[in-house]
Amino acid sequence: MSRILNHRMRSSLRRPSSWSCVDKRAVAFSVWTGRSVLLHKPLDSYQIPRRRYGMLIARAVRGVLKIRYLLLGGAVGGGMTLNKKYVEWKDGLPEMGWLNDLLPDNEQWDKFTTTLLDAKEKIGDQFQIDPRLREAGAVRAAELREWLAQRYEDAVAAAAVKNATSSIEPAPKIVNNLQSRPAPMSAKSNADETAAYERRVHALQEEVLSLQARYQRELQRLEQENRELRQQNMLLRQGRQPSTKKMKRSLIDMYSSVLDELADWDSGEAGRLPRVVVVGDQSAGKTSVLEMLAQARIFPRGAGEMCTRAPVKVTLSEGPYHVAQFNDSSREFDLNKEADLADLRKEVELRMRNSVRGGRTVSNQQIAMSVKGPGIPRMVLVDLPGVISTQTVDMASDTREAIKEMTKQYMDNPNAIILCIQDGSVDAERSNVTDLVSSCDPSGKRTIFVLTKVDLAEENLANPNRIRRILEGKLFPMKALGYYAVVTGRSRKDDSIQSIREYEERFFRSSKLFKDGMVAAGQVTTRNLALGVAECFWRMVRDSVEQQADAFKAMRFNLESEWKNTFPRQRELDRDELFERARAELLDKSAELSGVPAAAWEARLQKALWAAAAQRIFAGIYLPAAANASEDVDMHVLLQVKYKHPKSGDTSQIWLDPFDIDFNKFNTSVDIKLREWAENELATLSIQAGRQALREEFSELMSKSSDSDAIYEPVKKAAVDEALSRHQWEERAQDVLRVLQVNALQDRCVASRGEWDSAVSLMEDALKERLKSTEEDLKSLAGPGFRERWLYWQSSSEEQNRRSEVKSELERLGSSRPNLSYDEVVAVRDNLRRRGVDTDNEYIRETWKPIYLKQFLQRALSRARDCRKSFYLYTQQNGTGKECCEVVMFWRVQSALRTTANALRQQIGNREAGRLDRELREVLDEMSSDADMKKKLLSGRRVELAEELKRVRHVQEKLEEFIEALNKEK
Questions:
Q1: For residue range 600-618, what is the model confidence (pLDDT) as tens digits?
Q2: DSSP state, 619?
Q3: In terms of Cα–Cα distance, which of 394, 452, 460 is closest to 421?
């Protein structure tokens, strides 16, 4: 094919009329194959006229120029159109802020457009047209321009097809074989110019095709992102959340989290990881230096008073946006917005004031925050309160010593980098912090000295060598790794960080002190300070973090060994886990309250009701009614019974003669007293009994769980007690109970033999209990009997022996009268005097009261036994019989208590158990958020060892994760 074309080319050279057709085909073949078919021989051998050759060159140049404008215009116009379409398309999408990371940012688009502009300038600078070519003809140039336009379209189409198949392969090079015919007078120079021209054209074509390929890849990327956005939009419309990518944490954030874990560590050398401790005198510029490193005014300002009242840990890291965030908050403060900056300063000030409550001036409570932004060095700094020499009257009395102790505590860490800030505008002899730094780091291996306010120092100092001596480490007694001089402001609060930095650079450029070479260039500006501190920080981190990880590994081994030896076959549960287990058990038992059988509830409630009402029934109703029904009213003074009111606590005395009773008066008195009791006291007493029964049932349910751990018991008891103390029965329940109780007490008709026997049993039990109590009182008065003295070696006191003599004489008297007559008293006194016991009449009557009460109870108990067989007689008399009216009274009380128990059981099942369960949940929620309460209730070596072991494991895992990331970064 090449030979045929060459032959035709030679023929066409001999035939000028066919030159155009052959020339087109030859040039097309040359461009397509990359080989030249025209230049096998020099062009001057074809005997082309000079004018035609000039016209050919002119046409070629014009065509190339057209290609340049077409390509450049197309590239720029295509890029702008693409950008515009992309912006319109993005604005039409729904608001999905979390998808911003998937879209190209401004830096990528700026870089792309910058490349196009650079290409335009490069083409304009390199492409120079020879003036001699402007004289060429126009006919040949028009033909060549038409061919080049068609060839450009074919080349672009071929490049698009190939880029569609493989976007990463480079575009094929197009070799331009057009050469200019050298002038006869200077053939060598024209050949060089032609070769240079060809190289420029080749470079231009390669760059254009490369730009085209980049456009194609960018379009493919945007189409892929468009498909992903559509999928995520469909998921959002369907109510499903798209999967979010896990963000990789930065190295400095991982290190900062380790420091937070070790903030309150108190185990010797453990946890002493590097951090930059910023120390200095008050108003020396510590906060300003930290703000220059963070590139934002993040701390509040004070007019001559203390601003930093608590340690502030600031984690600096690089990021795409300049933001700040507290560790315990999710809000991000945009540091490029003045409103967010003001809110951040207010929040810092508020946290500092909250930490110094209780009359204190400074606090050890650390405030942790992070600052991210472009160009910010990665490090962790702790800003401490400034050291003071004199404390004012509005400060706490221990402020100066507290600041020194706090500063010393942070600097004593052998891996802490001490950033010592010294005010350059004041005399060096007024410094307080340099001596403190010297005592903590005498060799200066981890101290960096910073001289602030150098601009004021230059104005005020008469001897410039003083600053040079300070920065050379020859003036202060302390030593340091490096010495820096900075300017952190012009005493204006509204200056931005950028303006301060520009002022600092201008100052150091124009300063006489530093122009004369007194200080090296690397010792000035906060930019160099940041680089130096960051380098020292990471060097110390790499040197010490492995040792700290080994220390925690050894500590973990020791703790695990202690656990296995002390608490074998038990899980290592910390306080939170133990509390959650106790919480689950309590709530399970609370749910079981609704499953307690009704019979069990009523039996427990009746028992609780009788225990609460027995004293009131016996001493407040039965005995007073019997006293009121006695036939001989003058003899009511024979027996005294003390009764204590359950609500008011008042004690009253009752005089009783129970042997001769008018049963009509007894029933009337019982009716009155039972109604008063039901209307005033019984409902309240019943609610108290119901709460007691609920507590007892709950306690029994908890005690039934055999697999419960004893360590949970304090939590359970405290939660139940608090829930029951908060639990209040519904107020309307008392009204319901009062109506039921009044109606039950009005019924006097015992319907069945079982109810009669139950009332007799109740009366017998009450009398026996009272009789037993009375016998114990007599025993305490008269002392132990013969059996106790001989078998249990018990002895009596002198008073008990005296009472025993009186008791024996009264029993020998055999009187059945409730009130002893005067003659009987005199007789007893004379008999006692003969036996050597001297006593008076009142002493004898006082001893007779419990003796007579015992006799009364014994006779009443005998009547109760007799009444057990009288139910038939009671039914025959239709309830009008008076002989067993005491049994009827006890039946009425029993019926009222049974009705009350049934009502209370229903109230517990319907309302009170659920309300108690809710109150128990509230108590448990409050306890779960109270760390001090959990620490008090869950204590002991088991809990403390599990807590410490869990914490050591957590810190060790974080350290190993950080070391792995650190090694990958290396």
A1: 888 889 888 988 888 888 8
A2: I
A3: 452
